[in-house]
Amino acid sequence: SVIAVSNGGPWGDWAWPEMCPKGSYASGVSFKVEAPQGVMEDDTALNGIRLHCTRGGDPSGGYTAESQSGRWGRWSEAHWCPRRGPLLGFALRVQAPRHGLLSDEVAATSARFACSDGHVLEGPGSPWGQWGGWSPQCPRAVCGIQTRQEPARGLKSDDTALNDLRLFCC
């Protein structure tokens, strides 16, 4: 099954889904974030999310699942659920479309992930936008990811990068 939120950004297309290897599940996550660029510069905020997959609580597998990511920003360190428990759901912080002549659209700015023990992993995103509601929770674990990305639009344009997210349950 697929879990989603209702507050994702409107731009771009759904990229390819990517799954954790068979028999493993997501227990960690890292975030690709562009720092604020300053006045009159184009911000993209959250550019990508990478799931870190675990097999039976063993973190040494080193497998990741990552759908398309934007080209700006840097990857954070992995954030892990306690005792490598599974991720079950997520929420997005999104700046709603502003449609102003001089407004800088950024779409998704941060994400939170719910671990099976109730712990919440929050990304190092930007403070812009509003948190939406939590997605439904996977019954057992999250095993895959799909992102909605706006492709780079070229010089002097307003890029948003990551707009929305879907996760796949095992």
Number of helices: 0
Q: On the 0-100 scale, what is the average pLDDT? A: 86
CATH topology: Vitelline Membrane Outer Layer Protein I, subunit A
Tell me, briefly, the overall form. elongated
The portion of residues forming beta strands comes to: 35-45%
What is the assembly state of the chains in this entry? single chain
Which structural category fits the helices and strands?
A: mainly beta
- Which CATH first-tier class would you pick? Mainly Beta
Total domain modules: 1
CATH homolog superfamily: Vitelline membrane outer layer protein I (VOMI)
Supply the CATH architecture. Aligned Prism
Entry summary:
The protein has no helices and 14 strands. The protein is mostly beta strands. One of its GO terms (cellular component) is extracellular space.
Give the SSE map.
Layout: E1 2-4, E2 13-14, E3 18-19, E4 25-33, E5 46-55, E6 58-65, E7 74-75, E8 79-80, E9 87-94, E10 108-115, E11 120-122, E12 130-131, E13 142-149, E14 162-169
InterPro entries: VOMI, VOMI_sf
Protein name: VMO1 protein
Explained architecture:
The protein is an all-beta fold and 170 residues long. It has one domain (2-36, 44-150, 161-169): Vitelline Membrane Outer Layer Protein I, subunit A (Aligned Prism). Helix content is 0%, strand content 44%. The protein contains no helices and 14 strands. Strands 1, 2, 3, 13 and 14 form a 5-stranded antiparallel beta sheet that branches. A hairpin with a 4-residue loop joins strand 10 (108-115) and strand 11 (120-122). The model has no long low-confidence stretch (mean pLDDT 86).
